[in-house]
Amino acid sequence: MSGNSGQNPVPIDTNGITPFQQMLASCSGALLTSLFVTPLDVVKIRLQAQKSPFPKGKCFVYCNGLMDHTCVCTNGNSKAWYKAPGHFNGTLDAFIKIVRREGIKSLWSGLPPTLIMAVPATVIYFTCYDQLRAALRVRMGSHAEEAPLLAGALARVGSVTVISPLELIRTKMQSQRSSYRELSEVIHSAVRNEGWRSLWRGWGPTLLRDVPFSAMYWYNYEKGKAWLCKHNNIREPTFAITFISGAVSGSVITLPFDVVKTRRQVEIGELQAMNLSSKASSSTLSVMTKIVAENGVGGLFVGFLPRVVKVAPACAIMISCYEFGKAFFRKDEGQSCG
């Protein structure tokens, strides 16, 4: 390191691959994760709708394994995929009946619109995280181990800032039952009436919802990966190590943050659908305190089993595909240099 004069800007070392290659790795991971996880959430939402039908204006959270999307319910729309008729006696029964009656493609209902936002958001998020982590490790010196915490938080700020207007427009289109042809009018009317800043309505609460979760996820992931590498006496993490680290950090450790995140998301979505200002009423800590007061400490771990079944594999698939993609490009670069 002392050999560098510091006169010329040198690219931060990101394990020998370019940002474009990181983007390709995260894009492939995003597509695979969405294809794997979406059927699980479609079944979950159909079971939810059967148990307590969604009233008009009510929101539910739809997840394709990468991003949580707020869906606004409309009245009397029997064509909506989440309102399709059917009586299910559990998850497996729902899978079988949906495929038998509606075809296997119905398990990916609602996927195309969410992919339009999920893939770019994931590409921005993962690429920014890697670039920031590498830069922060150099600058933080003895505190380099905390770099993933800060990098994860900053990367989430970037992806939320880019995606927030799209999510707002999508929520408004759903609540007003607008078509994609009317998209420009939806945007123009929002800008005309409330200014450009209105497109980022809900940005603050969304950051409060997502940033603590992201910071904890990446910190735990990097710690778990380093520990498993040390335990197995290897320098580079294997596919199994990244898979296990991603699954554990994405399920048990961050669960309280995810409970807070989901509660906030539904509130923000319903306010946006009604064209009301979505102000951040409280911090993550105060929402946690409220949940504990209402439901006890166990309230922070509500939905543990469904989360382990769905979110843990989603996190594991995404991160291991991403790491595999980066390893592939590193190997390719090594061979081309050789």
TrEMBL record:
Membrane topology label: Multi-pass membrane protein
Pfam families to which the protein is assigned, alphabetical: Mito_carr (PF00153)
Cellular component terms (Gene Ontology): mitochondrial inner membrane
A GO BP annotation: mitochondrial transmembrane transport
Keyword hit for Ion transport: no
Placement of Solcar repeats on the sequence: 17-135, 143-227, 237-328
Gene3D superfamilies named in the record: Mitochondrial carrier domain
Record field: catalytic activity: glutathione(in) = glutathione(out)
Subcellular location: Mitochondrion inner membrane
The protein's name: Mitochondrial glutathione transporter SLC25A40
Originating gene: SLC25A40
